[in-house]
Amino acid sequence: MPTNQTIIIGSGMAGLHAGALLQAEGVQVTLLEAAAEWGGCAGKFQRGKFRFPVGATLGIGFEDNGIHRRVLNYLGADLSVISLQQAMTVRIGGEDFPYFTNREQFLAMWAEKEPETFPQIAAFFDEAWQIASALRKYMSHYAVLFPRTAYEWQALFNGFNIRSLKLAPYINKTMKTLVDKHGLADTDSFIHFINGTLLDSMQTTYEHVHLLLGATALNVYHEGAYYVEGGLYRLAEELVESIKINGGTVKKPSRVVAVARGNERRWSVKDHRGRHWEADNVVFNTGINNAADLLPSAHRDKLSKKFIRHSVPEKQWGAATMYAAVKEDVIPPDAALFYQVLVDPAQPAEEENHFFVSLSAHKDLKRAPEGFRTITVSSHIRIENWQSQYAYDDKKAKFIAAVKRELETLFPGFNQAAVHFESGGPVAWERFVLRKSGTVGGLPQTRENALWNAVSHREIGSGLWLCGDTVYPGAGTIGAASSGVHVARSISGKKIL
Question: Secretion signal: which residues (predicted)?
Fold first, then answer.
């Protein structure tokens, strides 16, 4: 019999998907969020008349068979999104490469940019898309590695067809195999393009990313890219509302400080105000770095070697972010809503050299009043280089200066037209989103971390569950949401979706 009391710690995308699905199935959910806002890394904050998405901004998974659309439909909820013909503009050393969602337009762009190597580029993407298409069949059934229950085995077998056999040669390869096969390692613009995409979604580059997941990352924008008015926090709010409508409880701010065995082998959860809850199941949507700290020492001593190996903060990236509000008249009418910028192709794609820029849409009044736009800029940083106060201040200042220079290039007159600036580094992410050491984005999806080598949602013991970007199936809102589906299925005992 399925248990009927579940506490979810954290309102990131994974915890919200798990909580909304469980509550819809009649499992009594209590969701506890430490911050003042819902959504975790996909949350928001307000500064006067301006609203800023914290981190995640570009919407994926809203197409007809995408995970967010399927979950919203399952819950009887809705969220209006705007389909984008161009997911983003990738700017490499000042040259723009439009990332068209339409595959033919996308390939035509490459034919124009790299005519000499275009046949190899087209063959590379054709093969990557075929790999992703075969893997998507598995993903649509939310298969678990490794399966334990009857419906998990069924999900695995339902994803199998004759095309699945084509995945066998790629099982333990990196994307470097595919790049080398098509002779593209020396085509600089192509390498910078795919590396930027992979770094944003898979947290690593083509030399190291697992081939199956790398192919999926290069295919995902062709399945659909979307702008959500206001920001992705609106998806978080829809899921919170679903939990409440179906009889669940949501509380913020309520920072969990300890999880221990309670009465009758149930779990007891305590928050920073001294309040206690008991439940049959506790779901940690906290990142694995934080989860172990909440458990009693006797339980921590029994954690698996895999869990301990993956929970080292230094294995993950941090983020530097800058938020700005600007008068709209400096934004060109044809400006993209999303940019990925590599300032100097000769330098590493991190810190003050590589940014993801998200611009609010014209007349998105949920983010800025008429006549203004808001901008969120983020960059991967190496946390170990930001440890001393001097290093932190120095790197933050260099990051801000580099971002302002690039925004002035993108939008001439920007610095004079800007009416608000603020920025944050790993300390801000740890303070406001409670990501330990300021880690964000999940583990790099390398062969050592991905798929069967990832931490399972059931890794830490009976009645305790993990979800989020640091567990299987991995990084990004789609990966995090999928882990929430796995948790909801395991606790409810039902093949949800």
Answer: none
Buried b (16+ CB within 10 A) or exposed e, 53-78: bbbbbbbbbbbeebbbbbbbebbebe
**Beta pairing partners, 47:** 50
Model pTM score: 0.94
At residue 50, the pLDDT reads 97
Domain encompassing residue 112: 102-223
What is the DSSP code string of 42-94?
G-EEEETTEEEE-S--SB-S-STTSHHHHHHHHHT-----EE-SEEEEEEETT
Residue percentage of the chain with pLDDT more than 90? 78
pLDDT at 165 over 80: no
The pLDDT tens digits for 23-36 are: 999 999 999 999 99
112: DSSP letter:
H
Q: Where does a domain end: 223, 258, 282?
A: 223
d(CA 330, CA 372): 10
pLDDT at residue 146 in the model: 79
Q: How far is CA 487 from the centre of its chain?
A: 17
Is 144 found in the same domain as 218? yes
Name the nearest CA neighbour of 267 among 308, 219, 299, 230: 299
**H or E stretch covering 222:** helix 211-223
Q: Answer whether 154's CB lies under 8 Å from 494's CB.
A: no
Over residues 414-433, mean pLDDT? 92
> Does residue 346 sit in helix, strand or coil?
coil
Q: What is the CATH number of the domain that holds 343?
A: 3.30.190
